[in-house]
Amino acid sequence: MTRPTAPRTLVTGPWLLGGPTGTPPPPCDPDATLPAAVLFDRDGTLVTDVPYNGDPEKVALMPTAREAVAAVRAAGIPTGVVTNQSGVARGLLTHRQVMAVRRRVEELLGPFAVWAVCPHGPADGCGCRKPAPGLVLAACRRLGVPAHRTVVIGDIGTDMDAARAAGARGVLVPTSLTRPEEIAAADATAYDLLGAVRLLLPPALRRSVARTREEAR
Ligand SMILES: [Mg+2]
Ligand SMILES: [Zn+2]
Q: One Pfam family, short name please (predicted)?
């Protein structure tokens, strides 16, 4: 008699790093005019998309990433990263390499309040791999913020679909790899990350971000 074989990959949910466990952040925005959190995609959004990158030396920031993340934090909004890393499931990336890239991103951009990483492949049927909502929802839970007041900024339709499925708001920052139909389907688009962040801020804060951009030139 043969036993059923165990599945090759045990799907146990995303890797969740950082963040206050179960402790909501202090209420910095009683009028709820600001997002409760901004979650960034990693590859092609915060840093250039190097397929299955496990090398911290290959981490390079996308245009205005530094200013955009700084502007979100200056507004008192917690930041997070939501990233599919199917290279893990494919055997092309180790946990250690994903953590090394994370450290390098944080050296360049400062610490994010939460990282939610999907290490699964498309065939694993997990609930976290974008366009599923699991990464966004897990990050929101970790931060103690409601998904409907959270914004996801990403470079492809998959990021926007994950945001929508989670009940969050999506802002697309297209690259040369973003397909026209993904741009057409997005609820909001911006030319660069700083432009995306400006969409989220009230006018007074927007003006201070505009000055930052001039200084950055
Ligand atoms: Mg991306
Ligand atoms: Zn997953």
A: Hydrolase_like
Instruction: Give the active site residue among 31, 41, 124, 161.
Output: 41
Q: Return phi, psi of residue 206, to 5°.
A: -60, -40
The CATH number for 108's domain is 3.40.50.1000
Output the pTM of the full model: 0.89
Number of domains in the chain: 1
Residue-wise pLDDT for 73-92, tens only, equals 999 999 999 999 999 999 99
Domain assignment of residue 48, given as a range: 39-216
CA 154 – ligand 1 centroid, Å: 6
Percent of the chain topping pLDDT 70: 85
Give the pLDDT confidence score for residue 7 in this predicted structure: 46
